[in-house]
TrEMBL record:
Parts of the chain that traverse the membrane: 24-42, 62-82, 102-126, 147-169, 175-195, 202-226, 238-261
Region Disordered, residue ranges: 290-329
Cellular location(s): Membrane
SMART domains associated with the record: CTNS
Gene Ontology CC: membrane
Keyword Transmembrane belongs to the record: yes
Keyword line: Membrane, Transmembrane, Transmembrane helix
Protein known as: PQ loop repeat protein
Topology with respect to the bilayer: Multi-pass membrane protein
Domain of life: Eukaryota
């Protein structure tokens, strides 16, 4: 037992002396840059939902899988042996070195927080109007679906916190195994996270409230972040940085599709801003359709609908009470 404690103490001391390793300051600078980039990359998505006044175009299951995956990833890095060693180092190193050692945890926490904000915006601005049935359409999403997604994310977060805290108190020796389990779950959820969003974007034919600038920043950033965490955590942290590689690849596929639809929408607009003369079908509730309807920023026509209890909770813009129309081609 004394031998095991000595080995653990030696490993902790090595982590605490990380400031003496070559490339320390380079990795520190890169870590700070990534932290700022994570925050800035999510701001366009937050702004787009608020500015459009609707979360139309975002798949509820994309939000569900992203929120639960982020929770598992955050819990994974909190309970990992490497992170616990970094926290232990704060007792013997300076405040600066302590903050530096915790940057990896802060990065994952920042990502979890930013996606949680997307979850709340999705719920607040969810278009609460009945969906017109379409024989060729997939399943329709209602306000009840959005609320169910929110409750599942909340319940999952509470369960993860309770289990992690209980193991930390009762069985700290198996926290490493629990962290790997969380990492595998997070990677699995992230691997399928973009599938419903890819399907939704493909079906709608436009990006909706999905932010292309966010994906332009995050897609290459995922690989840079994975490399930074791999350098900091080593092979033992595979369940943490491996998640970023998977999400980077899938987000790249979604980004390519979104750019193609955006280019197609812009080309479909006439030079005088008139509505393209294509057959269109209604996605969402419309009471009537007028000739010369206004177009949205994806090139699709929009139809005004009266405000009611079915409109989004916060009517941040005129688009929040509109039904969106996509090409049937």
């Amino acid at each position: 037992m004394d031998v095991l404690l000595k080995i653990a103490s030696d490993n902790t001391n090595k982590r605490c002396d990380a400031s003496l390793e070559p490339g320390y300051y380079l990795n520190l600078t890169l870590s700070i840059f990534i932290l700022i980039a994570i925050l800035l990359s999510y701001l366009p998505q937050h702004y787009r939902i608020i500015a459009r006044g609707t979360s139309e175009g975002l798949s509820p299951y994309f939000i569900l899988l992203g929120a639960t995956s982020g929770t598992c990833a955050f819990a994974n890095i909190l309970v990992s042996p490497v992170s616990r060693a970094d926290v232990a180092c704060c007792k013997v190193v300076s405040i600066f070195d302590c903050a530096t050692g915790l940057l990896g945890i802060v990065q994952v926490g920042m990502q979890w927080f930013c996606f949680t904000v997307i979850l709340f915006l999705f719920l607040i601005f969810f278009p609460r109007f009945p969906v017109v049935e379409d024989n060729e359409a997939g399943p329709s999403y209602t306000w009840r679906t959005a609320l169910t997604i929110g409750f599942i994310c909340l319940f999952h977060g509470l369960i993860t916190i309770v289990l992690s805290a209980a193991l930390a108190i009762a069985k700290p020796s198996i926290l490493g195994t629990w962290g790997n389990i969380l990492g595998v779950i997070a990677t699995t959820l992230a691997a399928i996270q973009y599938i419903p969003q890819i399907w939704t974007t493909w079906y709608l034919g436009h990006v909706g409230s999905l932010s292309i600038p966010m994906m332009l920043i995050q897609t290459p950033g995922s690989f840079v972040w994975a490399a930074s965490l791999a350098a900091r955590m080593g092979i033992e942290g595979w369940s943490t940085w491996g998640l970023l590689i998977v999400t980077g690849c899938l987000q790249g596929c979604l980004l390519a599709m979104a750019i193609c639809f955006e280019i197609k929408a812009r080309r479909g607009k006439n030079g005088d801003g008139e509505e393209p003369s294509k057959a269109r079908c209604v996605v969402g509730y419309i009471s009537s359709q007028r000739d010369g309807a206004e177009t949205d920023d994806e090139g699709g026509a929009v139809v005004e609908t009266p405000s009611s209890e079915r409109t989004p909770l916060l009517n941040g813009s005129r688009k929040s009470s509109r039904a969106y129309i996509r090409d049937t081609n």
